[in-house]
């Protein structure tokens, strides 16, 4: 490694340490105010999350998924909401790279640190016009909409009003949309996942791609790059912040089980210790599943059977993390459910992600099994 490379690595490590420290210091504030501060967002960018998966042809880092999973989880130990936004910022590049090359050039015109939110659920309406589309509607749960520079929106909404159009991804810059403050969730409050609103906005065709192409990882202008379908990577994006939250909850609970309970809780001392051991093991197992999935994503070729296994593993890891944090909250008793106690905050964040429609285990499990037996 050259001297300049050594210096760059040291700077990156220092920037990562800074965002971890800053996010941790402001975690309670982010939860209370329902937003991560601009200062923390800036630190996320400085730590390299936005450029993590950006192709080198656009000045990006093209760093690996294993490193990314570890970095997001570490950040999640301090502030899961910040980790969620950092994960979205990193994985957005995968979808931007499916746009026509002219669209990619426009998106990354100001450099590889451009931030983008992503909306996979098809909403709104799209009217085809000369040279592009007129896009209107509201898109819910847009994490980072207040801070990010662009949004990748999915539309049109399916149904008779779609006019039979296929679903597409539309890249829309910040100046073309507004947002309504609608995010008041149980957990992940700091993500600011508000409702984005567009009113008859023109999106040129070079900033549009078929959603199906993006889901199968059809990168444009990047020969030799591994094609990663959505099942390979989407679970990593969702679950890595939860791994961090669960590990943080484990650290809090470790302090509780180290003290012999008194009063009515005295008889629960040993059961709590057993719960703690089970939770620790489940968190470790979930981490191993995510590490294996990230290793698959970093491979040169990802066959369909491994894509289906990645989807299964990430959904299963999430289930295990939910179960573990449920146990840890029980160890904390009534006190841990009080406002301001870190255990309830981590538990709320884990539960919030677990409710996400695309992370349910049943469809992932069915897809995996049907793939093995040759069913479609």
Describe this structure in words.
- The chain is of the alpha+beta class and 376 residues long.
- The chain has three domains: 3-107, Acyl-CoA dehydrogenase/oxidase, N-terminal domain (Butyryl-Coa Dehydrogenase, subunit A, domain 1, Orthogonal Bundle), CATH 1.10.540; 116-212, Butyryl-CoA Dehydrogenase, subunit A, domain 2 (Beta Barrel); 230-373, Up-down Bundle (Butyryl-CoA Dehydrogenase, subunit A, domain 3), CATH 1.20.140.
- The protein has helices spanning 3-25, 27-33, 38-46, 65-78, 80-96, 101-107, 211-215, 230-257, 269-297, 304-332, 342-354, 361-373; strands at 116-118, 125-129, 132-142, 150-155, 168-173, 178-180, 194-204, 208-210.
- The strands form two sheets. The chain has a four-stranded mixed beta sheet. Strands 2-3-7-6 form a four-stranded antiparallel beta sheet, with no helix packed on it.
- α1 runs parallel beside α4, α4 packs antiparallel against α9 (269-297) and α10 (304-332) packs antiparallel against α11.
- The longest helix has 29 residues, at 269-297.
- The model has no long low-confidence stretch (mean pLDDT 92).
């Amino acid at each position: 490694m050259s001297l300049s490379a050594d210096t760059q690595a040291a700077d990156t490590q220092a920037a990562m340490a800074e965002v971890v420290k800053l996010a941790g210091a402001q975690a309670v504030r982010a939860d209370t105010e329902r937003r991560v501060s601009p200062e923390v967002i800036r630190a996320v960018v400085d730590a390299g999350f936005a450029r993590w998966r950006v192709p080198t042809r656009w000045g990006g880092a093209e760093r690996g998924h294993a490193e990314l999973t570890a970095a997001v989880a570490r950040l999640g130990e301090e502030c899961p909401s910040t980790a969620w936004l950092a994960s979205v910022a990193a994985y957005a590049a995968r979808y931007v790279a499916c746009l026509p090359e002219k669209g990619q050039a426009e998106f990354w015109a100001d450099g590889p640190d451009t931030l983008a939110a992503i909306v996979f659920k098809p909403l709104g309406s799209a009217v085809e016009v000369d040279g592009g589309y007129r896009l209107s509607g509201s898109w819910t749960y847009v994490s980072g909409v207040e801070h990010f520079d662009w949004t990748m929106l999915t539309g049109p909404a399916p149904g008779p009003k779609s006019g039979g159009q296929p679903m597409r991804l539309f890249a829309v810059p910040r100046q073309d949309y507004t947002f309504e403050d609608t995010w008041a969730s149980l957990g992940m409050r700091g993500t600011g996942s508000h409702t984005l609103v567009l009113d008859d906005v023109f999106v040129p065709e070079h900033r549009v791609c078929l959603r199906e192409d993006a889901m199968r990882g059809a990168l444009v202008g990047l020969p030799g790059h591994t094609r990663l379908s959505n099942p390979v990577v989407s679970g990593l994006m969702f679950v890595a912040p939860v791994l961090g939250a669960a590990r943080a909850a484990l650290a809090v609970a470790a302090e509780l089980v180290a003290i012999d309970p008194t009063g009515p809780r005295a008889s629960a001392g040993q059961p709590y210790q057993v719960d703690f051991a089970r939770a620790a093991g489940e968190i470790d197992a979930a981490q191993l599943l995510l590490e294996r999935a990230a290793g698959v994503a970093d491979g040169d070729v990802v066959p369909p059977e491994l894509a289906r296994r990645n989807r299964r593993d990430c959904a299963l890891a999430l289930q295990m993390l939910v179960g573990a944090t449920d146990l840890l909250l029980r160890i904390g008793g009534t006190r841990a459910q009080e406002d301001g106690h870190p255990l309830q905050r981590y538990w709320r964040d884990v539960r919030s992600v677990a409710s996400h429609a695309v992370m349910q285990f049943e469809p992932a499990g069915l897809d995996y099994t049907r793939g093995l037996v040759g069913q479609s």
